[in-house]
Amino acid sequence: xxxxxxxxxxxxxxxxxxxxxxxxxxxxxxxxxxxxxxxxxxxxxxxxxxxxxxxxxxxxxxxxxxxxxxxxxxxxxxxxxxxxxxxxxxxxxxxxxxxxxxxxxxxxxxxxxxxxxxxxxxxxxxxxxxxxxxxxxxxxxxxxxxxxxxxxxxxxxxxxxxxxxxxxxxxxxxxxxxxxxxxxxxxxxxxxxxxxxxxxxxxxxxxxxxxxxxxxxxxxxxxxxxxxxxxxxxxxxxxxxxxxxxxxxxxxxxxxxxxxxxxxxxxxxxxxxxxxxxxxxxxxxxxxxxxxxxxxxxxxxxxxxxxxxxxxxxxxxxxxxxxxxxxxxxxxxxxxxxxxxxxxxxxxxxxxxxxxxxxxxxxxxxxxxxxxxxxxxxxxxxxxxxxxxxxxxxxxxxxxxxxxxxxxxxxxxxxxxxxxxxxxxxxxxxxxxxxxxxxxxxxxxxxxxxxxxxxxxxxxxx
Length: 462
Fold this sequence. Notes:
Layout: E1 2-4, E2 92-97, E3 108-110, E4 113-119, E5 124-130, E6 136-143, E7 163-165, E8 168-172, E9 177-182, E10 188-193, E11 216-218, E12 221-224, E13 234-237, E14 243-246, E15 260-264, E16 267-273, E17 277-282, E18 288-293, E19 305-307, E20 310-315, E21 320-329, E22 332-342, E23 352-355, E24 358-363, E25 367-372, E26 378-382, E27 389-394, E28 397-402, E29 409-413, E30 421-425, E31 440-442, E32 445-450, E33 453-458
Antiparallel strand pairs: 1-26, 2-33, 3-4, 4-5, 5-6, 7-8, 8-9, 9-10, 11-12, 12-13, 13-14, 15-16, 16-17, 17-18, 19-20, 20-21, 21-22, 23-24, 24-25, 25-26, 27-28, 28-29, 29-30, 31-32, 32-33
């Protein structure tokens, strides 16, 4: 049942969750490219509807959903005019397709193309699909396949969601293969190995979970997290794959989080979370501008959240959440912790979204939570109506996807007054594995990836 909690009440500390399997929460996939994207697609309108209390901003990449967690890597769609209430049994299924192999990649959506990744018997592949029906347009080999211990990632298949930037698509395989292809043809442009070419190292190595991040494309750079003694973050030339810089003064192992980009104090920087620190790196040089110690647990997965000078991070296994105020300009910054090891939000890997100054997501042992960003206090929590899962925001509502069992998808209002559900349905044709890919909302459609299967629902209001 729903419970509204006074902001002054602090949640009791709860024991850390020990389910190691969840790890693969690894990034998902999804990319959508134009049919012949020989030039960059037009950017989404700056006037797109914005959540109450939030300021709309230009997407970092053009397209309806061109990368992990959407246009701005914040889990929020720019779609408007969507259904506010679902009919019994859920929205209409527009189409479904199979043949995507094993894996936890989401889809990226740009123009009339969808992009995702999966594993077949001989290799891991990047796929391009027609957005009108899901027919495969091309597939290109990413790298090796496999799972299991001794350094081989558990859970078969890529976790990375493809990133689409103009006429190029980028994706990371679970063994660290970083691939760039031509968006129209699928022809390989360049290929690197984060492990072999750059000496990368993932936390808990030899890792049973492998590389999980989705690459960031910013201007002429592709930014990834190989981790290891040669530097945590790495920037490559997007056209050639040649190194531009590496963070020699930050050498944490890679976790499973994906980099975000922010402008703080007039300086463009990349923010990343590891199992040891959260840090901001100068986009032009790779210089570490600020770094705050932040100890993670068995697996650190959710991407950081940035808002007006504040960086919020959360992870599971009892780590909780932290908020840091980043103060400074140019090349001089300092970090002021606002709260640390707060147990209101212990998000394992379903992600969180920030809407109207409130953080929404699933907290281990607590349930679905609305949390005040600035204070860290719980606003409401709901443990009974829907199990653990992932979250996406669109047009005033939150799309929640349960990870286990029937894979129930629920639509609730993004409202600090409480958990108010306006529709739900159980996913058809469920696989036997957890449905870790996050929901994707783009161009009036809801996309759900479940291993070999991709479902597309029509959620546009008539």
